[in-house]
């Protein structure tokens, strides 16, 4: 199979879909890998490294997109829609439940779209989303600490305080992969951390594994509202697999926060779990609502591309090999884990939550 690896063009997105080591795995299986010139530079990987791994460097995005399977990090941007076509296999993060125009384009152009974020193991975990959730969770705390500083619009609080001065209070809504990683970083800084979640078993687990100034609370509307009111930082870490995130933190709750408090919504890719969320970019990352600083960058891990690319490639390349070795249809039939990621196929939406998000027909996969 011919595999294309184009350069990412989303704002300051310096990740790349595979490392040279990952490309070597694909090439060693007999596949031709076309890497757009400069695709890996932002992550610290130069063209000669890809050549040494067995890839062919091509000069333009069009050359890379002409492949049988295109591997990416982020969803196609509007300027890339022209490359979408029937029989193209696209393997990337899609987040379609929050991207109506892209959904229609993939359907209209009959692209076979497999989304990293919905590839699902039998135990319900998401192996291709997990590494970026780990990165984004840890970054969420870093960015919150940065924007808590007064020169950046914040309260002027140090997360861990000092002797005689209380630490900052971090409230994390959602105790999954993002939530636990955000908590680890915040606790490491000495902050006071509260995690809210509806899953009591998850809260028990978090209570066992996390130590420090840490508490848990079962989430409901009233408890979220009270926790947000007293927070210096709110981190949105709610995920509904493949679906648009629910607004668990309302505009009214945000209005009760102290001026200079900080909100980081890691669920922004899926529409955000905070009502005041709107997607921002690394070039223009923050805005304020009711004097509360909001950091809602839709590709947070793109700010640490070397770490992110290596972590992502470690997880995705085995699935890329399966798709390339067997072809999309045979791979989906052979691997139920990979089949969970199929989102569009032959002009139909094959993931129920995406169809539901836009009131469109869901059509189960049939080869």
Relevant terms:
Rossmann fold, eight-stranded mixed sheet, 367 residues, 17% strand, alpha/beta, 13 helices, seven-stranded mixed sheet
Topology readout:
Elements: E1 2-5, H1 20-28, E2 32-36, H2 47-52, E3 56-58, H3 61-65, E4 69-71, E5 89-92, H4 100-108, E6 112-115, H5 130-148, E7 169-173, H6 177-188, E8 192-197, H7 200-209, E9 214-218, H8 221-229, E10 233-236, H9 251-255, E11 262-265, E12 286-289, E13 292-295, H10 305-326, H11 328-334, H12 336-339, E14 342-345, E15 348-349, H13 352-358
Helix pairs in contact: 1-10, 5-6, 10-11
Unreliable parts: none
Strand count, sense and barrel status of the largest sheet are: 8 strands, mixed
The succession of helices and strands, N to C, reads EHEHEHEEHEHEHEHEHEHEEEHHHEEH
The order of strands across the largest sheet is 3-2-1-4-5-6-14-15
Q: What portion of residues belong to β-strands?
A: 15-25%
| CATH class term of the largest domain | Alpha Beta
Class by alpha and beta content = alpha/beta
What is the radius of gyration computed over CA atoms, rounded to a whole number of angstroms?
A: 21 Å
Number of continuous helical runs: 13
Distance between the termini: 19 Å
CATH architecture of the largest domain: 3-Layer(aba) Sandwich
Helix content: 25-40%
Number of strands: 15
Given the C-alpha coordinates, what overall shape results? globular
């Amino acid at each position: 199979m011919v595999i294309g690896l184009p350069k990412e063009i989303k704002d300051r997105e310096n990740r790349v879909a595979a490392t040279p080591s990952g490309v070597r795995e694909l090439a060693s299986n007999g596949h031709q890998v076309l890497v757009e010139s400069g695709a890996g530079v932002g992550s610290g990987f130069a063209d000669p490294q890809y050549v040494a791994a067995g890839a062919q460097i091509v000069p333009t995005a069009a050359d890379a997109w002409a492949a049988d399977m295109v591997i990416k990090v982020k969803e196609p941007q509007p300027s890339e829609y022209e490359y979408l076509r029937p029989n193209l296999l696209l393997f990337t993060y899609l987040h379609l439940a929050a991207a109506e125009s892209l959904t229609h384009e993939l359907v209209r152009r009959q692209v076979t779209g497999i989304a990293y974020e919905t590839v699902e193991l039998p135990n319900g975990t998401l192996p291709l989303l997990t590494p970026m959730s780990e990165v984004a969770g840890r970054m969420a705390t870093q960015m919150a600490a940065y924007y808590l500083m007064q020169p950046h619009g914040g309260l002027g609080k140090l997360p861990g305080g000092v002797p005689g001065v209380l630490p900052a209070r971090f409230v994390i809504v959602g105790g999954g992969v993002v939530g636990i990683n955000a908590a680890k970083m915040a606790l490491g800084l000495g902050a006071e951390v509260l995690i809210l979640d509806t899953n009591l078993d998850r809260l028990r687990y978090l209570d066992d594994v996390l130590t420090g100034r840490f508490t848990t609370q079962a989430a409901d509307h009233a408890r979220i509202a009270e926790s947000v009111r007293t927070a210096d930082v709110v981190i949105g870490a709610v995920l509904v697999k493949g679906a648009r995130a629910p607004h668990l933190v309302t505009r009214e709750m945000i209005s009760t926060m102290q001026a200079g408090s900080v909100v980081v919504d890691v669920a922004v890719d899926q529409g955000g779990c905070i009502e005041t969320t709107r997607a921002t970019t690394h070039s223009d990352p923050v805005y304020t609502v009711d004097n509360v600083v909001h950091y809602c960058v839709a590709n947070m891990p793109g700010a640490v591309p070397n770490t992110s690319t290596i972590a992502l490639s470690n997880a995705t390349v085995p699935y890329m090999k399966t798709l390339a070795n067997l072809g999309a249809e045979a791979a989906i039939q052979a691997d139920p884990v990979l089949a969970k990621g199929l989102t569009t196929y032959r002009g139909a939406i094959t993931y129920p939550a995406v169809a539901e998000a836009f009131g469109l027909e869901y059509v189960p996969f049939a080869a």
